[in-house]
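Work Package 4 report. The design task specified in the project plan requires that, given a folded chain encoded as structure tokens, an amino acid be chosen for each position. We show below one input record used in the internal validation round.
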């Protein structure tokens, strides 16, 4: 990371820390969801952008993480922060196991298999034999966490929304740091090699089956952590909140933000959180039609995504300055 990039990152972090003190609680809640979606999109981008596997059902892992956190908090009385690693571990195992048989599938066939997972899970959550745990169609209501007592002793007066925002921001930074280290290392290079040329990667000695399954599992783990954070922020989980449309929206987010881009996850999260609200304010009758127009416009004007467009613009400015 260059000195200029480091300074820019520190400025963005400073702005993110100052943001909740200048906006309403509802806006804080929206930006908390932006952070949650950033983690989810980063996980999906690892699978699709860096490894070339298309998933149309990753919302199912988001739902598994959300329900894991909600059940642990509601039934076992576990603290909210302790549910995150468990939700991530559950989704890691489920994603890895799902990725093993999916190794025989490529391209659209893999997409259809994941699509089936995304369609079937909400119905499974409504299954009457699981209602004791999942709450059935009524779902599970969970309390919003209170700020730790030691913050008040230090003179930091934070309400529930601000504390949850900062907690989610800390988790987002941790997950992004883990992804950055992994993607720039040996595993990340192997993922990209498999995406670009599968046969050549095997000839170079890469265990493509293991890397693809591991990528699927890690991607699902990121979705699970995001789902757990999302459930804590929304304070509710229900089967209808995790329909197949959620998976499609996540896929839209990584395309708009920029494939194979870590920062693109943030831009994609801003898009899927705020553009539907803008579309709803423009037209109450057909908000998703307006959303589709916005999406087509972004894809047409920035085919490499927002992150790609920024990279191109910066490169052009550098060339002009050198000339």
């Amino acid at each position: 990371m260059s000195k200029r990039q480091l300074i820019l990152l520190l400025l963005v972090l400073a702005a993110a820390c100052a943001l909740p003190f200048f906006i309403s609680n509802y806006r804080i809640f929206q930006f908390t969801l932006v952070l949650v979606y950033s983690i989810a999109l980063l996980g999906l981008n690892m699978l699709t952008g860096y490894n070339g596997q298309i998933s149309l059902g990753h919302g199912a892992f988001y739902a598994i993480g959300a329900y894991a956190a909600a059940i642990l908090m509601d039934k076992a009385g576990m603290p909210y922060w302790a549910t995150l690693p468990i939700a991530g571990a559950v989704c890691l195992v489920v994603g890895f196991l799902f990725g093993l048989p999916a190794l025989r599938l490529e391209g659209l066939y893999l997409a259809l298999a994941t699509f089936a997972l995304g369609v079937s899970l909400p119905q499974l959550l409504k299954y009457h034999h699981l209602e004791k745990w999942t709450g059935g169609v009524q779902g599970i209501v969970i309390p919003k966490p209170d700020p730790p007592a030691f913050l008040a002793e230090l003179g930091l007066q934070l309400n529930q929304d601000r504390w949850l925002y900062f907690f989610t921001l800390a988790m987002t930074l941790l997950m992004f740091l883990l992804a950055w280290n992994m993607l720039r290392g040996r595993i990340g290079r192997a993922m990209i090699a498999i995406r670009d040329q599968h046969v050549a990667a095997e000839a170079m000695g890469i265990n493509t089956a293991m890397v693809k399954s591991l990528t699927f599992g890690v991607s699902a783990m990121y979705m699970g952590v995001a789902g757990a954070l999302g459930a804590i922020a929304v304070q509710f989980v229900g089967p209808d909140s995790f329909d197949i449309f959620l998976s499609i929206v996540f896929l839209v987010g990584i395309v708009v933000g920029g494939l194979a881009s870590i920062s693109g996850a943030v831009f994609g999260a801003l898009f899927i959180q705020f553009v539907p609200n803008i579309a709803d304010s423009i037209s109450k009758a057909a908000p998703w039609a307006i959303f589709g127009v916005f999406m087509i416009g972004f894809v047409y004007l920035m085919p490499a995504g927002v992150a790609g467009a920024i990279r191109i613009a910066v490169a052009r400015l550098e060339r002009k300055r050198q000339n």
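The two ends are 24 Å apart (CA to CA). Validation will be extended to a larger panel in the next phase.
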